[in-house]
Amino acid sequence: MILLNRYSIKRKKTISMYQNYTTGQTALTLNLDFTIPNNHLATVIGWFVDSIPEDVLLGDSAKTGRPAYHPAMMLKILLFAYSRRVFSGRKIALMLEENLPMMVLAEHQQISYHTINNFRSSDHANELVKKCFLYFTNLLEQEGLINEGAIFIDGTKIEADANRYSFVWRKAVEKYHEKLKGQAVELYDELIAKEVVKAMAKEQVQTSQGLTELAQETEAEIEKLTEEIAQEPKAIPGGSARKAKRRALKKLLHKLRKDYVPRMKKYEEAEEVFAGRNSYSKTDHDATFMHMKEDHMKNGQLKPGYNIQVATTDQYVVDFALYPNPTDFKTLEPFLKQMTTMDKFDKIVADAGYGSEYNYSMLEEEYSDKQYYIPYTMYEKEQTRKYKNDPTKLANWFYDEEDDYYLDQNGVRFSFKCYSRRKDKSTGQVRDFKVYEADKFQLTPELERLAKTKSGRQRQVRYNPNWQYLKEKAKGVLQSPEGRYIYSKRKYDVEPVFGHLKNVFGMRRTHLRGKKKVETDVGIAFMMMNLSKYWNRRWSKDQSSLHKNKNNKKKTVKQLKLRVGLIVFWYLKVSFFPDTFNLYIPLLHELTHKIAHVSCTSFSLFFSCRCIHQIS
Prior knowledge:
Number of helices: 23
Low-confidence stretches: 1-14, 595-616
Helix content: 40-55%
Largest sheet: 6 strands, mixed
Structural class: alpha+beta
Strand content: 5-15%
Shape: flat
Mean pLDDT: 85
Number of strands: 13
């Protein structure tokens, strides 16, 4: 019994080092402060969205039904959710219940994931996101953040939210479509021979509508034969000819209804979906199969995706667009035409993927007031020593401008023969060439042999004067000091945007299907990156200035403490040994002046004066 009491006494003396944590008890907690700091990203998002005019945010709303959630609130929660790498509608709805900044942005409203996804997929959201970039560009202009008045353009491919193996190829569709058209014509000829259908144009027969009419007329003929067969006697020697004809027509009708008409409709719909492309995905008709850098199988696998074109300045995205073209040079013209903020920039910077004769000519004609810094494909290679010393290149041949002829590395003379024209199928541009042909009579028999090809024809070379002029002009601009400076900024202005999108924010694949919906999805991601970067730069600047002020205050306090301590030391020394420190009067005057200059306390000034008084 005594041992138990001792043990209980020891337990009472034990001191707990943990906070009180008791569950299951009834408690009334009042927390009226559901706010977020002023330097939080959600505050910047709310401030920017609220700066957009009300009529732009609301758009054309419905006149009937239950009032919808405000578009400003929906846009705010989507921007903040994307900044936290949350793209699922269900997870965004869950954040509205658990995440304090989301609760503040939504004003503590619980929104269904259906509503979130419906807003994100709507046409109004698509228009609103595009207009956000216009207002953000105006903000950059007001704060002087447009980099050298230059716009940097580049593209990247992003995988679509579609099945990787649900491809439809244009060549295969065209092949089987032509084959089906031939079969339809053969069936039509057979029906004409049996006097079943009326004559119609073969072009009409090769359509789904024409085949449907054939099926209707064949069915009407079968019904007519059925009525005639009902009036025939049951037993006919050698069988009924009408029944045999009806059986044959039923087979043809079955082939029309079950095979020809559905396949013809499918091929016609596929050709409409192609819209000039070579492929599309069955699960996302706007996605095109193209090569991606993320090739995990290492076999050059084609995946459904989109080509995203982006225009940046100071690493801020000012505009973007989606295209089905795997390459970039066809996207420059439509991308510049759809830009609403083009008047704010006077320089266009892009990489060699955009350098072509068509793009250079377009920029010269339509954007003559702007300077472009775009190298052509062979620009870097032409600057190498190997290319300059290559005797097989036409640029390194001797050219006589007066007589208009070339001499190759062997001395074969190529005289001007004629002009030729070529039309580019992809762009429709007409290109003019000068054709130079090797002379039949050269200085030596060996040169005459070298002037011919293996097949015995005279060798020819082609020269494009317009393309050569545009290349020389682009080369001169890029090699100028200003051109080198402007073009060097391209690598660290537009390229990091794609790295942040795919690696930092984890968006390597779209989350919606259809071009407009994907535009909204990608646009929200880019605008979130803009606001996040704007917030980071602004907050880091405030933080650095705050840190600098704190260091300055600490340094000033230390200096004041040191000087006051020296003054007290001098005062004590002078009080006890006045004759010893007569030589230090000028030093004390200087010290007093410095203390007064740094705004020291009246206490230190008092001691300094007493020191001087004691010495004197």
